[in-house]
Specification:
mainly alpha
Length: 92
């Protein structure tokens, strides 16, 4: 199950790079992380409006859980020892 969720968020992250690339290099780089956090937050807001507390809790869990892989890659920014992720790496 965790791999399924991680793969889904990896695709969202990659989509953010592609989506925000049109606004320049900086926006393209930051766009992956932005979309990775925006999607569960926006879905959580949707569930708040629908008065669905279970949906809100699940979305907020995924929102805050995304800070773990973000922090790991931020910590590795200078050393660059973690592998680059690609579509080939996500498909077993």
């Amino acid at each position: 199950m965790p791999h399924l969720v991680d793969n889904a968020f990896m695709q969202i992250h990659a989509g953010g790079h592609a989506l925000f690339r049109v606004f320049g290099l900086t926006a393209g780089v930051a766009g992956g992380t932005f979309l990775q956090l925006f999607v569960p937050f926006a879905l959580g807001f949707y569930f708040i409006r629908q008065r669905q507390p279970l949906g809100v809790a699940l979305c907020m869990f995924f929102f805050f859980e995304q800070f773990l892989p973000i922090a790991r890659y931020m910590a590795d920014a200078q050393a660059q020892q973690l592998p680059w992720m690609s579509m080939a790496a996500t498909n077993p």
